[in-house]
Structure formats: C-alpha cells, structure tokens
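Thread: "does anyone have the structure for this chain?"

Original post by V.I.:
We have the sequence but no experimental structure in hand. Need at least a predicted one for the grant figures.
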Amino acid sequence: MNLDISKIPFSRFGSYFAISYDDKDNELYIRDLHGGDESPSKLFKLELTEAGVPQKFSLKVDETKLSLYHIEDKEKYIEICIPKYDIIRIVSKNCGIRFSMVKNKYDNVMIYDKNKLEFHSYSKEIKLMLSLIKGTVKLDAPWDMIGNTHVIMDFNYDDCNEVDIALESYKTVWKPKEYMSFLESQQLVKNEYKQWKDKVLEVPEEYKSSRDLASYITWSSVVKPEGMLKRPAMYMSKNWMYNIWSWDNCFNAMALSKNNPELALDQLMIFIDHQDESGVFADFINDRYLSFSCCKPPIYGWAFRYMKQQNEYFKKPEILDTVYNAIKLNTEYWLKYRRYNEEDLPFYKHGNDSGWDNSSIFHKGIPVQSPDLSAFLVKQMYILSEIAEELNKKSEAEHWISEGDKLLEKLIKDLWKDNRFTAIKVDTKENLNDGNSLILMMPIVLGDKLPKHIKEELLKELKIEGKYLSKYGLATEAMDSKYYKENGYWLGPIWAPVMMLIIDSLKECGEGEFAGELAKRFCNATLIGGMAENFDPIDGKGLVDPAFTWTSSVFLMLANKYLI
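Reply from O.Q.:
Generated one for you, tokens below.
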C-alpha cells in the first residue's frame, strides 16, 4: 500500500511512536502516544535539508517504511522504520535531517555522551535517547533558567554521504545496545507484519484493498503493556483517539478471536483487570490512567458468545469462569446502580454511556431509559444463563433466565408504544420520540426473543429504503428526521458497531438474506471511505477519524462471514 499519513499514522504493533503529516501546517511530525488523547502527541518536526536549509519533499509510505524524497532529486532521501516498539531508525542519503523539538515547559535536551543526546519530555513523562551512528550533528538549544528556549538539531552526512540515527523512548534509564543495520531493521518489521497479516480474516478478492488497509490499521494501532495497561491494547486509533475504549474493545476482540485468541482475550481482560467493585467497566484506559466518568453499554456477553463460537480456546474452564464472573458483576451493576428501584428500567446518565454520544434521544436531558440498554441487558442475561450451564451452575442459569424474562416483559410494557419503541426521560416521564434515532430500533438484537409482531414491525422499518436504510448501510438517525445532520456523528452517519450488532442479530430472526445485503452495503462503504470512524449514508464518504480499528474489525468479520 501507499499510505497517506495525513490520515493513517505510520506506526507498528506495540509502539507508542507514530509519525504523521499534519496537513494544517504541512509538516511531518514524530509523535508519542503516552498519556492518551488528552496529552499532546507531537515530539519533533522532521525536515529534509540541504546545506542546512529545509527542502520540499514528497512522501512514499508503506506498511513498514516511510520515505521522504527531495522534490527535485530522488537521489536525496530519508528513510524511516520502527523495528522495535521503542526504537525508530532514520537514515538519509545525500541530504541532511533536521529535528525541531515541539517544546512544552521544562522540556530539554542534554549531551549524554559523544554522539548521544538525551531529551526529557515532561509532558509525556518519557525520556528519549538519540544516537548518531553516522554523520555529524549541530545542536541549537539555548538554555534559559529552567529549560531550553528551543531545540533544533541539524544532522549532516560526512564522507559516506549518509546519516544514520536511532531514536529510543524509555521511562527512566537508557540501556546501551547494539543496533542492526537499517536494512536488517526493516526486514525484521516486514517479517513481523507478514505474520500478522497471515492471521487476518480472509475476504473476497473485490475487497482486497479494504483488507490490506484493515490489516495495517489493526496491527499498527496496538501498544505494548505499560503503566495501567498490563496487556497489549488495540487502541481505537493512533490519530486522535489513542486510548482503548469499552465497547470498541469488544469488536476488536471478536475479529481477533478466530486466529489470534490470546490477543483477543487481552482486549476484554484489560477492562476486567480494572473492573470496579461495583461492577462497572471503565469508559477508557491508557497507559497513564483510566476513566470512570462514563461507561459503555453492556455488550460483553454478546461479544464473548461470538468469540466462543469462533474458537474453542474461549471454552477453557478458567477463561469461562473469569469472564462469566466479570459479566455477571457488570450486569448486576446496571440492575443495582442504574435503576431507582427494582421495578424500573435501567437508565443512561449521559449519551456517552450509550456510545451514541449525541443521539437525538439525549437532546432533552438525562437520565434516559433507552430500549437498547434493556435489550442488551436481556440478551446478556440469557447469555449468562448459557455460560452458567457450561460451568454447571444450574441455579444461576435459572436465575438469569428468570431475570431476563422479567426485564424483557418490562421493556415491552414501558417502552413499546404505538407500534414503536420510545425512550423516556426518567425525571419527567416524557416520551423522547420526536426524533427518529436508530437506537430505538436496537431491541432487534433480541431476535426471536421478541414477540413476533414487534420483531416484524422493527424489520419492516429497517427495510424501508431512504429511512434508515441507505446505499451503504443503516443511518443512525433516520434520513427524513428533523435531527438528521450531515457528518452529525450519531445523528445520521453509519457506524460499524451498530451494523455488526444488527446484522449478527438478523440471523436469529430468519433474515439471512437481509443480513448479507447489509453486510455488502457496509463493506462497499469501505471501498470509498476506507476504515473511517463512520460513513456518510448518502455517498459512503469516510468521516471524522479516517483510521479506526473497530471499523476495520467489523469490516473483516462481515466480509469473511457473509460475503465469501
């Protein structure tokens, strides 16, 4: 592939390094993702120079190497690869390299040893060692009381016409090491990437370009265990959303489950490791902290059942027991702490809790009883019953069936009104149905557990061309709704998780043909919009973050399961 790194960062499995081209200022930056997306990521501006003067360059980037070519002389170039999680190798031929540090307060550089510079990034809480293997360096870094006023380094070639640099990241102490050549470094990462791609789900030939892109995005978005992250974590993106979020993690785990089960389980266990005693999962986690400001909908049971269907690995008694207990505790959280009493339906405290941040059902305030939440919980309770049976917990299996039946009855009684589901603002008991969010259709996930007339009414609505159903999938706000908004996040654009949840449920409704049609429409969107965070339902254009992992994962699952 030839990657556009203004949209898709250059990185590698396990690394907190990423390199991106910022098309706002037309500059190339080496970035660091420690601290999550609330922490600015730019470390250095990188330029190709001639006699100390920055030159215009063109970029050529594939999965394992990034190259800068002098715009007028292709014999003058810089090459970059990331052979190890914490090492970037940079070489140049017939040209110089300039690093300009993107400074924050206290950030500084010091001469560590001959041909070695150590950088202290206070905002990122890391240190960086730059080792000059070939070439010369001129350092411009005036000191002013507490730090350098600026840091600019010009690296120039000597008799061999080459510059060769290793840039390393670490927390405390740098450890000396031998460096393999650049060619050996690149071959190492090529071999690793090939091993990854060989395990990526197969898709029809017509979607080869989408598979290539999904493969690279999922591989390059993983960071190694560090700090709060005790396991390798597939971030949602290395563009802007560089954390691991709960429910995003479920879709990535599902796509990994068939051929990469250990890493798949890690994506669930990252949140299980940090599960609060109340049962709630964190909203997101990165190496530095985890947030319980919001949470996400209860779909772990559904995701884990899918994973068990893909691979016997997840049926190991110790895995079943661990995941069962975590999902059980999470379900009890919603029943205990998100209801005012046992007779009420559970509620969301914010749109972010649902994952549909700005859905039209949240426009009049909170808390909101939404039909998707109760439907997810009902489904999760039925799945808990299945797992309890596998673990020979007979009484618990019966308990979850009973609880699921009761909540389903209550869901229909309270929220099925005038042949449609509604949401209710809890404090005022107001029906939130003046919009037409697809979230109100999400009880379809219950399949044949729904009464026949309700299931048929939902299916009829979903099949109306031009309402939710578009050329590229299902719009999250009906296209004829007054709240529909172009590029409106959850007010219209098509989202991968919703497509996966609904398509997976359609087979339980005896709607295999419709499931296949929806899968094809969504996969066709990736041929236009890539692996974007979401898609315009009218033209398939990719929106918001253009390099998203759950989009990649859902594409791979749908193309593999429904289109081959």
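V.I.: this helps a lot. The chain has 13 helices and 31 strands.
O.Q.: and The two ends are 23 Å apart (CA to CA).
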